[in-house]
Amino acid sequence: MRVLITETLDRSGLRVLQEHAEVDVRKGLSPEALREIMCEYDGLVVRSATDVNAELLAAGAGRLRVVGRAGTGVDNIDVDAATRLGITVVNAPTANSNAVAEQTLALMLALARRVHPAITSLKAGRWEKGALQGTEVKGKTLGLVGLGRIARLVASKVRGLEMQVIAFDPYVGPEGAASSGVRLVELDDLLRQADYISVHTPLTSATQGLIGARELGLMKPGAYLVNCARGGIIDEDALAEALKEGRIGGAALDVFEVEPATDNPLVGLGNVIATPHLAGSTAEAQEGVAVDVARAVVDVLAGRIPESPVNVPYLAPEAAARLRPYVDLAERLGSFFVQWRGTLANRLELTYAGDLVEYDTRILTAAFLAGLLRPVCADPVNIVNASHVAAERGLTVSEVRRGCMEPFDSMIVAAFPDAEGETNASGTVIHGEPHLVGLDGQRLDCVAQGHMVADLHHDRPGIVGSMGRILGEEDINISFVQMSRASKGGASIMILGLDESVPPAMMPRFLEVPGVQRVRSVVLPPFDGYVNGNH
Questions:
Q1: Which of 63, 183, 192, 277 is catalytic?
Q2: Is 65 a catalytic residue?
Q3: CATH architecture entry for 317-524
Q4: Phi first, then psi: what are they for 61, rounded to 5°?
Q5: What's the number of CA atoms in the CB half-sphere (13 Å) around residue 381?
Q6: Which of these CATH numbers, 3.40.640.10, 3.40.630.30, 3.40.50.720, 3.20.20.140, describes 97-274?
Q7: Which among 259, 358, 473, 500 is annotated as catalytic?
Q8: What is the pTM of this model?
Q9: Is residue 532's pLDDT more than 50?
Q10: pLDDT digits (tens, 9 = 90+) for 370-396
Q11: DSSP states along 79-139
Q12: Catalytic site includes residue 230
C-alpha cells in the first residue's frame, strides 16, 4: 500500500503510517502534477492547503481508497465526490479539543487580570500598577453558549477555579448538563447572570449573529465575552459599539468573520484581546491530529471502520438499490424534524413500516440521526458516527417495526414519545422523490428539499396572505404551499416552499401575524434524483 502526504505532518503521525504502508512526502506539488500521480496511491493525507477537488479524486479513482485531513474540518475536500467514488474521508475532530479549552481559560484569565494592557503599558515604559487592578474568577459565574465536547472540557477545568457554570444549549437535556456539573438556562438568562460568557456553538444559519446588539445589551456591565469557536456567531459591529461605549468589560477573540483579521477594527480596541486563530495550535494538538488521522487512514486501508469517518459508508449491493432512496429520506427527515422542533428530547422512537422491515434498518437510523444531529453539532456527524454522537448527548434511540401503514408501501416515522402532545414526522419515497407526509399528527405532502418556512397556527382566514405579503416585501418567491389542519378553526400546519432562505432577522415578523404560534426556517439539500450515484 502507498500513501502520499502533500503537507507538513508531525513525525508521530508519519511513523504510524510508515509502519503500515510505503509513504511518500511530496510538498508543493502543482494541481496538475498531483493529478498525474494520484492514481499511484491508496491513501492521501493533507492539511488545509491541498485542494482535494472532484478532478483530483477522479484521477485517483480505482486505487485511491482514503483521504485523510490532519485537522478538524474538511472544507478543502469534495466529500460528495469522494463518496460517489467510494473513497472514504477521515479527519481528526477531537485531537485539539483540550487545546481550545485551555485557550478559552487562558483568555478568560487574561481578561480578568488585565494581562494584555499591563504588558502593553510596561513595554511602553509606564508603571501603572494602581490603574490595572484586576478581578478574581473565584465565585464568579461562567456562561457557556453551547455545551458540546469543548464546552464540557471548559466546565470541567473551571471547577478547579471554584466558578459557577451555567449553559445554554437547546439540544442538551438537563440530565446531560448535570453530569458535567452545569445548570441549563435560557440564553437571555445566561446573558443576564454570567460574569464571563464563552461561545462554543457551531456556525450555522441558526447561530449566525446569535449574539447581537440585543443580546449584548442584556449582559452585565463589566462582563466579559470570549470566542474561540467560530467567527460570525457574534455580530462584530454590535460588539465593537458595546466595547467602545463601555457597556461590557471586554472581549477576547480568537476567531473572526473574515480572516486574516489584521484590518478588523476590533483588534485595535484597548479592551479587546485578539489572537490569530491559535486555539487549536499547540504542539500536543498537532501531534494528536497527526496520530489520529494516520490511525484512521491505516484503519481504512486495513478494511476496518475508522474512528473519525466523514462520509457515508458503502451499501451492500443487494440492499443498495432499495435502501439508497430511504437512506436519503431518513437523513432529510431527521434534519427537518430538528429544525422544526428547535430542540432535542432525551428519547427518540423510529418506526419502520412496510417492506423496509425486511432489511437491516440500522443504516436508516444512522442516517436519520445524522440529519437530526448535524444542524446542532460543531463536529462532523455522518451515518457512521451518528449513533455514537447520539449516545454522547444522552439520546436514547429505539426502533419499532410494523406492517404496512396505509396508504404507503413503506414509511419512516420519527417521534419524541415523551414530549407533550403530538411530536412526530413521517416520510416516504413517492415516484422516486423524498416526501414529508405527516407532521405532529397531521397529514400533508411535500417533497423534502430546499428552503422552507413551516408554521403552526390557529386555522383562520388570511394566514396565507399575511405570510405571503411578508415574503413578497423581501422579494422572496413562494414555490409551493402545503397546509393541514386538525379541525376547522383548530391547530393548523403550513409549509411554504421558497426559492431562497429567509434571513434570521426576518423570522420574528411572521410571529406578528395573528394566530401564528410557532414558525421555523427549514433548509434541506436540493433534490436532484437518485441517479448516477448522486445519493
A1: 277
A2: no
A3: 2-Layer Sandwich (3.30)
A4: -60, 140
A5: 26
A6: 3.40.50.720
A7: 259
A8: 0.74
A9: no
A10: 999 998 887 768 776 788 789 888 899
A11: HHHHHHTT-EEE--SSTTHHHHHHHHHHHHHHHHTTHHHHHHHHHTT---TGGG-----TT
A12: yes
